[in-house]
Design brief:
With 972 residues, this protein is mainly beta. The chain is 7% helix and 35% strand. β34 and β35 form a beta hairpin. The longest helix is centred in the last third of the chain and has 28 residues.
């Protein structure tokens, strides 16, 4: 009976854990590290990642963080670095070795070389393209098999949520379930004291813990941690300590004790639930404001957690948590996370969250209450991205502002990643400098995203602090210039700062009419061009008809009608160039054609929603912008207009900023822009009139807006959302956004920028599933679907495709949302390959179907190289083609295939066995022809096989004769 009751209780406890509400998550997760293969041999190590969101996540620009180092990610297997919903992917130490170890794994494999993962645990993490941590934790030991995450949606990095696989791993698959049994714990006798109540016990009944003799469960360090505490609450409040449980089951606290540096233990009572908080009040000791230690012991007297803070000397003061100020608590940066380094784990906060999830928020300054907090030593200059090795040449410079030397013993310098360096017996002379090299501090400064450095005195006081954001220009330092920080091209380690602004590219501007007639004198003016560094500028004009010019303002006459691209190149004193192109339409009768100006670079702010035809009053019209970048963008004096607006463009007011990943909308009553209901366009330009984004439309349904969806594709929606995240809903009158674009040729799409929405018409040259399940090709353009959602297509199908331009490996492609974005227009319209020399194959040929002839010069696995005498190119046999390697090094082949980009450059992808036709086999030499600088030999193969058989027969006969002779010799 007792065993049955125990089984019933155990089942109830397991069910309670499995159905814990999602509110217990420590943080919102996106892509998580889900399994770690640190146990494998060097070069065979890997980690598995998992997308736990409801949307695809692009890992372009992400980093794997290990050994305090950013390791880049490069695609080895798969269509791209976009990880789908619930998709598993592998980041491998050596991707080719992982592919050999796990040949059946067909998912995304990402290469990211690192030194070695420690089997006994180390800090690892994932950083996004902006340099911010998505995840960062120290994993638990797993010496024999892989380390698996128990709950992928839980930001818990203790042994509670991680387990070692029983005998192997589950790379690329769902993790195995851990084998766990609920603990047998000693029952409270029901007479627990009320002097230290559990906050949770008063609101929620804890599950019963069953008594079984005098046995007490064994607990490990960090199963419960000191999570937050208030050492200096002020005169009107009391001190308190908050505990947090990382354990998988409820824990009975009877017999547990907590104590401070006076070593006067105080008994605890009640119980604490999994991943919940308990607050201890009415303490019988007082924490020392300047510094103390808190020790938590279990019922067996074993230390489960201890926290030193401030000036408490526990033998190593450098890893103490900081000293808090008045009415400031000390809280773990992540609830329950314990790296055994209190300096890294805790921060002081003005937002005490007793019994709730921690919030780190610092308001005001406590410097006046702490002797030695004056800004006597400052961070004076940092050098994040030197030319050459960052690990060898990065440095941080400190400067002493005092008139006497300062001993920096136990001072601490830390960065945004909470990496801390503690000074030993280091002194800085009066007015002098100290240079701290990265190899000494182990602090790696970020080269992109954001970075923050803090210098704290031995008492935990913040003495100096700096931060910077954005991409760092190589070999520039960030230096203090008076009271301002600025980048300089003249780093001065150990000396006074010299400010020399990095050279910036000039801004090229053309002022010229978009149309003219033949014989008319046209004025081209570049006087609005400028240089941020106030350098002298040189001008170079190319009028598109073979005539050049070099004056700031010049006149030109066109003799022949047509469309001309006028290019202006502006060069500064340092040789930095910027160019702008304008189309000029020259006619004989003065017919006007719309023109636009393009520029190579611009801030990537996009038009995200327009509302041209509201129900009722047109005053409800609006234009919405979106900032997809991780940094705020100043829109001062940017311009919005439409193609049919008779008024002036709307100039966005000074000091208008659009925050990262936020929306900003402008109403018609503000802009004065009247959007036509039948057809029009909305254009966004920067302060010097460079076109940044443009959307054209026609015949929108009344009451519907046109908005980008989650894939950045334009859709008509019946739910306008000005200033908010777009909602794509449809009604009977809705028109597909793809119907609002005029079709173009695939080749024309190559000149468009990523993000542009277009419609193309072309012929299928590589069918879906051939090279990848996510893309196929039409006449020089890759068509991509993350969902692998394509209609049935055949070679020669002429199709119309609507989607959005993007790029991978420098190759343009058109992203579609579903098969509905593809319409079959005709069939059997086969495209002939373009015959070309290898030297003529450039990035402009990406996606095209080409034919070359040359000699096979290398052959390794699925890779081979063909040289036609002008240049060589790599070929790659994709698994989906089923091509057999019936050629060898030295053979000459006629090779047909699609030109594709890869991390190693351009390559040609044959589609079937018919795309590789041998024209000469190694050893033949009958008919001689010349191609380029190499002589190619082609013959009929009719006699080749008989001759080969004769040669083999002769070799066998010769070998038998030798064997007979050897036997005769032995007999003698």
């Amino acid at each position: 009976m007792k065993a049955s009751k125990q089984l019933l209780i155990n089942t109830a406890l397991i069910a309670f854990f499995l159905f814990l509400p999602k509110a217990l998550k420590a943080q919102e997760l996106t892509v998580v590290i889900n399994e770690i293969g640190a146990y494998q041999a060097t070069d065979h190590e890997w980690i598995e990642i998992l997308n736990v969101t409801g949307s695809p996540v692009d890992l372009s620009g992400w980093k794997f963080w290990e050994n305090q180092t950013n390791h880049g990610l490069s695609l080895f297997q798969g269509a791209d670095l976009i990880i789908g919903v619930a998709e598993y992917a592998i980041i491998a130490q050596k991707a080719d070795i992982f592919h050999t170890d796990y040949p059946d794994f067909t998912g995304t494999i990402i290469d990211s070389s690192w030194g070695s993962l420690k089997e006994d645990g180390e800090e690892i993490g994932l950083k996004d393209a902006g340099g911010s941590f998505i995840e960062q934790f120290t994993y638990t030991p797993a010496p024999d098999f892989s380390l698996e995450r128990t709950d992928s949606n839980l930001a818990d990095y203790t042994s509670v949520n991680w387990h070692e696989h029983s005998d192997s791993n589950t790379a690329g698959m769902e993790n195995s379930a851990p084998t766990v049994n609920p603990p047998v714990d000693e029952i409270s006798d029901g007479s627990a004291s009320d002097d230290i109540p559990s906050e949770n016990s008063s609101n929620e009944a804890a599950p019963e813990i069953i008594e079984t003799g005098n046995t007490t469960a064994e607990y490990l360090p960090s199963d419960i941690v000191v999570n937050e505490f208030m050492p200096d609450p002020g005169s009107d409040d009391e001190e308190w300590i908050e505990l947090y449980s990382n354990y998988i089951y409820p824990i009975n606290l009877s017999g547990w004790t907590i104590e401070d540096g006076t070593e006067k233990p105080q008994a605890l009572s009640g119980s604490i639930l999994p991943r919940q908080f308990t607050v201890l009040e009415n303490l019988n000791f007082q924490l020392n404001n300047a510094g103390d230690i808190i020790v938590l012991n279990d019922a067996n007297g074993k230390i489960i957690d201890q926290v030193s803070f401030g000036a408490w000397d526990d033998g190593n003061i450098s890893d103490n948590a900081p000293k808090s100020g008045s009415r400031q608590s000390l809280a773990r940066n992540i609830d329950g996370k314990n790296t055994d380094n209190n300096f890294n784990d805790f921060s002081k906060t003005s937002a005490d969250t007793k019994g709730l999830e921690n919030i780190i928020s610092f308001q005001g300054s406590d410097e006046s209450t702490d002797v030695g907090c004056e800004k006597s030593v400052i961070i004076n200059e940092v050098f994040p991205d030197p030319r050459g090795s960052d690990a060898d040449y990065e440095w941080i410079e400190l400067k002493n502002l005092n008139q006497e030397k300062i001993n920096l013993k136990n001072w601490v310098l830390k960065d945004a990643a909470k990496t801390g360096f503690t000074f030993a017996e280091d002194e800085i002379t009066a007015g002098g400098f100290i240079i701290l090299k990265r190899e000494f501090t182990k602090i790696a400064l970020n080269n992109s995203g954001s970075e923050k450095l803090q210098l704290l005195s031995s008492s935990g006081c913040l003495v100096s602090e700096i931060s910077y954001e954005g991409k760092v220009v190589e070999n520039t330092s960030y230096a203090l210039n008076g009271s301002n920080w600025t980048w300089t091209e003249s780093p001065t380690p150990g000396a006074e700062n010299i400010i020399k602004q990095p050279n910036q590219r000039p801004i090229a501007v053309i002022d010229a009419p978009g149309t003219a007639i033949t014989g008319e004198t046209v004025l081209f003016d570049a006087s609005d061009s400028s240089d941020p560094n106030n350098d002298n500028l040189a001008f170079r004009w190319d009028f598109g008809d073979g005539v050049l010019g070099n004056l700031i303002s010049t006149k030109h006459t066109y003799d022949t009608a047509g469309n001309y691209l006028v290019k202006l190149t502006v060069t500064d004193d340092s040789g930095a160039e910027s160019e702008v192109i304008q189309e000029v339409n020259i006619t004989k009768n003065g017919v006007v054609k719309e023109t636009r100006q393009t520029v190579p670079t611009a801030e990537r702010i996009i038009v995200s929603e327009i509302f041209p035809n509201p129900s009722g009053s047109d005053d409800a019209e609006f234009i919405e912008l979106y900032n997809p970048t991780p940094w705020p963008v100043d829109l001062s004096f940017w311009q919005i207009d439409d193609s049919k607006n008779t008024g002036k463009p709307y100039k966005i007011p000074l000091k208008t900023t659009i925050e990262p990943r936020q929306f900003l909308f402008f109403e018609k009553t503000t802009t004065g822009i009247i959007l036509n209901n039948d057809s029009d366009s909305v254009r966004l330009s920067d302060p010097v009139s460079n076109l940044v984004d443009q959307i054209k439309y026609q015949n929108l349904t009344e009451g519907h807006s046109l908005a980008i969806d989650e894939n950045y594709l334009w859709q008509e929606t019946s739910t306008p959302t000005p200033g908010e995240e777009n909602k794509i809903t449809f009604s009977s009158g809705a028109q597909k956004a793809s119907d609002k674009f005029e079709a173009m040729a695939p080749a024309d799409a190559q000149n468009l920028d990523s993000g542009e929405k277009i419609k193309v018409i072309g012929t299928v040259t590589a069918i879906p599933g051939l090279f990848s399940s996510q893309y196929f090709y039409i006449d020089g353009l890759q068509i991509y679907s993350f969902k692998k959602d394509f209609p049935s297509l055949a070679y020669g199908d002429k199709i119309e495709v609507s989607g959005e331009i993007s790029k991978i490996n420098n190759e343009k492609r058109l992203k579609i949302k579903s098969r509905e974005d593809i319409k079959i227009i005709a069939q059997n319209q086969l495209t002939a390959p373009l015959e070309i020399s290898v030297a003529e194959i450039t990035e402009e040929k990406l996606g095209m179907l080409l034919k070359i002839s040359g000699e096979v010069t290398d052959l390794k696995g699925s890779l081979f190289t063909v040289d036609d005498g002008t240049e060589e190119i790599a070929g790659y046999l994709k698994n989906g083609t089923g091509i057999k390697k019936d050629f060898k090094i030295g053979d000459t082949v006629n090779l047909t295939g699609i030109i594709s980009g890869s991390k190693n450059g351009l390559q040609i992808l044959p589609r079937s066995q018919d795309d590789i036709v041998p024209s000469k086999v190694l050893g033949e030499s009958n008919i001689e022809t010349t191609t380029g600088n190499r002589q190619l030999f082609t013959v009929s193969r009719s006699w080749f096989f008989p001759v080969t058989l004769l040669i083999l027969a002769a070799l066998i006969l010769w070998q038998r004769i030798k064997i007979i002779q050897l036997k005769e010799f032995i007999k003698e």
